[in-house]
What does this fold into?
Amino acid sequence: MKALRNTWYVAALAKELDAQAFLSRKLLDVSVLMYRKADGTPVAMQDRCPHRFAPLSLGKRVGDEVQCLYHGLRFDSNGACTHSPHGDGQVPARACVRSFSLVERYGFLWIWMGDANRADAKLIPHYPLLDNPLPTAVAHGYMHMPANYELIVDNVMDLSHVDHVHGPLLNTAGHLSPQKPPVTEDSNSVLVRWEWQQHPPMGLFAPLLPDPAGEAEQFVQVQWTAPSNMFLTVGAVQGSRDYERGLISWDFHLVTPESETSTHYFFGSLRNFMVDNGAFNDAKLENMIHTFKTEDEPLIAAQQAEMGTTDFWSLKPALLSCDTASVKARRRLQKLIDEENASPQNAARAAMRATA
Amino acid sequence: MKALRNTWYVAALAKELDAQAFLSRKLLDVSVLMYRKADGTPVAMQDRCPHRFAPLSLGKRVGDEVQCLYHGLRFDSNGACTHSPHGDGQVPARACVRSFSLVERYGFLWIWMGDANRADAKLIPHYPLLDNPLPTAVAHGYMHMPANYELIVDNVMDLSHVDHVHGPLLNTAGHLSPQKPPVTEDSNSVLVRWEWQQHPPMGLFAPLLPDPAGEAEQFVQVQWTAPSNMFLTVGAVQGSRDYERGLISWDFHLVTPESETSTHYFFGSLRNFMVDNGAFNDAKLENMIHTFKTEDEPLIAAQQAEMGTTDFWSLKPALLSCDTASVKARRRLQKLIDEENASPQNAARAAMRATA
Amino acid sequence: MKALRNTWYVAALAKELDAQAFLSRKLLDVSVLMYRKADGTPVAMQDRCPHRFAPLSLGKRVGDEVQCLYHGLRFDSNGACTHSPHGDGQVPARACVRSFSLVERYGFLWIWMGDANRADAKLIPHYPLLDNPLPTAVAHGYMHMPANYELIVDNVMDLSHVDHVHGPLLNTAGHLSPQKPPVTEDSNSVLVRWEWQQHPPMGLFAPLLPDPAGEAEQFVQVQWTAPSNMFLTVGAVQGSRDYERGLISWDFHLVTPESETSTHYFFGSLRNFMVDNGAFNDAKLENMIHTFKTEDEPLIAAQQAEMGTTDFWSLKPALLSCDTASVKARRRLQKLIDEENASPQNAARAAMRATA
It folds into this structure.
């Protein structure tokens, strides 16, 4: 499948990986086994025994190691075979499992599916806002989406769709579409920002603003970084344009391809209001997931079904002003993938993978 | 998929398209959106927004226009974009939807999926019998069939199968198979006709004949016209061979490919008896559908499953005398498709379609 | 699909084919119709009418012949068309069904899917043990398995997996894996044998041994013959190594490809103990099937899902000492398939099949 490999993807929410159980998830068409060592360190390796290709996740934990159900080969968390019960116990060189760097940060587990030598935790996106928040002020969520991950990036990078798709909670009342929102880029990111007045304010904020039925200054900005991480800042204030004095919600939408036509959608959400209200925190997460599942997903799944696996550009889309940011993100990602594929080193690796 | 494109197909029953709702149906592997304008005129266009390829049928009516759910683009019934809520409202040239001629006639909606410039309503088959009948004397029906449309044409063009497949309602008691029914052709059609004596008569007619247990003169003829329209006349009379004095049923079997392995099966049915009995009319339609669903469909679906998408001729069928009409229909259709594909104009269009 | 064709496969248990009913089963991707003639002789032919490719199994018996439901063509048990109700009853040369030799032996029906001229019943594996046993001493079973047949051969040829996969009934308590079991070959077979002491004995034998909680001498050997027939002998004795005085179970595991990714798994089971106890016989078969369905199948199905249709060797398996016998079986089968494909005669036939 078409995807950047030398990059960090979210593989799971930190809370999805409990102390004991295995978690098996397909990422970029590869079956990945994740678990925590006794000291809590999360680890990841291919969920495939190198002997007969049974999923290791059917096996069991032996301390910090994994024992294959089928013939009892045991692997440490680096994928090295530490024990074979067979014959004289000799372990052939091939009996090693591909392991992946897996780093816990910001409530997510980040995985590097590319060249292991290039896995550098400094390349994980910097989301300091997610560090050390009050537990009642931050929520992490996960959804499975039956669509290619770039369709989800398109969705988030072009929030003009909110005018048309979303109900009262996220209603923007048609204020986004008429804008040509400024799009700014640096070496690493694409950023798009909308500002507008709305009366009454968006349902997410209205009940918490001084005048729930009055006019509010609102804004939303989305910062994309490769391959498919989006950081949203959404705000509303009344009586001034000093957004810092208003309500702000920060939302991280981090999507990871499962296959050509399905995606793992992770998010993290914070805010500067009602931060010590755990019930509000839970309800906000639940409402967000409900909104995506009922308003975005049917549309994106239908779009996926209509497009199939035909290349997006080959369908010659009619581009509108609202597409600027999503198209820039698509093109930057494509450029990175092309560079990755063109690198002689990676071409050699790809050839090895193909015969591995 | 293999199909003639420059021709009229039935896309829906007229009654399937109500005053307000959208109807979305896949025809020749293309998603088609149909609806009626306020004045009742039926219209059809590709069910795919040219912007991001969401199905337009998820959107809404705005007067006689269609508004895409995803980003609010609006299209008139010719597929022209009449409104974009984005930026300065400019509409790019590509923002148009492919529309299709859709003509209401004989209780059906006829669609032209080929070169729009060649869509000529005069080419719709002439079925004057279906004009202005008593409402209680005509019935229109629809079935979805999990098989290639040519297998259904084969079925109807070779009614010798009735001897073997069908129960009391359509029982022909072995009288058709021994015949070598005359097959006549003109530039436009293939016609096959069987005549025989049957004792007692076919269940469809027996209760309405003077002597339900006696002998009847019966006949059935099927006229095929390209691509896959079949007009059946079925009759029974007692005491003479003057069929005009007997009972006659006229049945139109009109099939439209959905995909390589599935078909929309439409029919219209009239008769010269009990014409003002609406309950009889309803029961006859229901019995007809029941017969197809329980007697023909399991067989044709199994035939499709056994053949897969292998070309019929490559399987080297053993041909019998009963196959004459169905083989002529297959060959004439193939010739039309070959001619269509060979036309330089269409070859160019096909190339454009492939990259569109 | 990759499979040897000029060989005998089990197509069904003899008891699956009753006196009247058709049995239709896909073997090597070919739909096969089986039934018994009035004298009990089992016969097999392709389950596809040569006229319009409807499955003959939808039709009916007419004496020892088969009549197609669709148009009434009738075929004798050699696949020759004996009657056409059409026209003058002429039967075209192509109107014949491919028939297969089907031989009833040892409670199984053996089919030859290759070159009919080479079907020689002498090539059926010799399993005299299965001749004339007490009805209460022999059991025959069938399971459908969602995996390629070679994965099942691997499973049975490497019984070290029993140490890891199986519960109390077949528990070997880790005694098999440490062995490098001797593997012997002759022109026709691969044989592997394990011997060990176990305390308490395997659950299958323990309750029937003099000292159910004591130590037993145990052994198991598996003889593979092409293409995928495995004959197991399993035994336990106490107080000596004279296995002939102990308990012995003989188990025939005979697997036939259905498709690239699914298999018909047949078995026959005998023993030298409690031979006149029919209830024990039934329970042993039921336990065996239960063990396979709950302990082996989930593993092998997951292995299949993880491998997909990728060639086993291209995945570069890490081979262990326990793999010797299964790898020898795989290589011998591959050699036979390569020889079959390389034969000019068969290459011609394959080409004919491809266009048939």
